[in-house]
Amino acid sequence: MSVCTIKNITARVCYDSRGSQTIEAEVQVDGHVGRATAPTGASTGKHEAVGLVGGDARKTCKVLETYKKKLIGADASDAYELSKLLHKIDGTENFSRIGGSAAYAISIAAAEAAAKKRNIPLYALLSNGKNIALPYPLGNVFGGGKHAGEGSPDIQEFLACPKGAKNIADALMANVEVHREVRRIIEKRDPKFSGGKGDEGAWAYPVNNSQALEITYEAVSRVSHKLGLEVRLGLDVASSSMWDPKHKIYNYFRAGKKLTPEQQLEYVLELIDKYDLIYIEDPVHEEAFEEFSRITSEAKGCIVAGDDLFVTNTNRLRKGARLGAGNGVILKVNQVGTLGDALEFAKTARQNQYAVITSHRSGDSPDQHLAHIAVGTHSLMMKSGVVGGERVAKLNELIRINDSRLINEGEQVPMAKFVV
Ligand code: PGA
Ligand code: ZN
Fold it and tell me: What is the dihedral of CA 316, 264, 201, 184, to 10 degrees?
């Protein structure tokens, strides 16, 4: 396999979908250029890597100028070695010196440049390109928590998953239909609905948690019936944002209720049952490994995924696997910093029978890499919004990947296999 030597790296300050400054890097490999923009989260786990150096994109670019010569000459096609090198240059536990955003942008841009040089798609560089399957889109259709305004529900995301779809075209269509249906249902309740959306393109409307559950459950049920394929509901509870460690209580500020850890557990199990949830993310806070494992063993047929719990960190995942905490992991490259670390995390997840759900961030860019990372890590799902340029860019890339693999007319790349 040809070596893909890094010849140069440049970086600039640019903007994410929230209008916040971030960093974009370009990596040159023998006449081929890869480019990546670092996304940013709003609902971040406390164990995530640092993003921008001192929270400042310009400073992050300046720091990059001081160490980039150490990366020149490295092999862009080896995500693991590049990751080691970035860690060595940084020298901290959490990328606080060079910034996880820089590590993200450099490692993904390098992989893209290497794939271009080898004339293969990025996902094939990350896996071997064989036996690929497409992830189910897990689409945010109704928003709350840190992604929408004060009047919205405490639960952060209400998600649609077209489990019954046989191909990516049907899967994407189903999620778009659910998104539309949610709007129709809201407009019936309130003809003056302004059509406001949260950070990820999900509808933002002032209702409480149970009303939002009723609306979205009705929407997935209607679309299932209309399209004749099973569409199920999922939630990202993002419980860490409600957890008050001092008083050991979950504080549903907007609903005005407080739940003990035991009541929280009962509440989420009740939701899984009542709304036939296919997916629940962060049902308890980011240190609650034990409660996570209780939910996992009691919630049959539901993917219980750790986002803030694992923060794409292989050591935290190993601990979770020992305790039986969760059966799904959220993979966000910028939580850990490098692509190599994220690939290692995905491998560990698969070895321990966890489903991988590759995820966007609420502040994202029109980059398409997420689709390739999802396919390359054999993800069961790709989590993103349903609408908005920066979300659709990733979804449309799944269609392109499907098209590029079609051998005979009408033949489709299979969807990933559900394990629960
Ligand atoms: P983010 O959150 O705002 O940190 O991207 C998304 C999530 O919690 O899944
Ligand atoms: Zn989450």
Answer: 150
CA–centroid distance, residue 238 to ligand 2 (Å)? 5
- Residue 36's CB is within 10 A of a number of other CB atoms, namely 25
What is the rounded average pLDDT for all residues in the chain?
A: 96
Q: What is the CATH number of the domain that holds 149?
A: 3.20.20.120
DSSP labels for 60-115?
Answer: HHHHHHHHGGGTTTSBTT-HHHHHHHHHHHH-SSSSTTT-HHHHHHHHHHHHHHHH
How close is the Cα of 24 to the center of ligand 2, in Å? Answer: 24
| Residue indicated by tokens 């209720």 | 257
Cβ–ligand 1 distance for 307 under 6 Å, the answer: yes
Q: How many structural domains is the chain composed of? A: 2
Q: Other C-beta atoms within 10 Å of 93: how many?
A: 10
- Under the banding of pLDDT at 50, 70 and 90, the label for residue 202 is very high
Task: Report pLDDT for 242.
Answer: 96
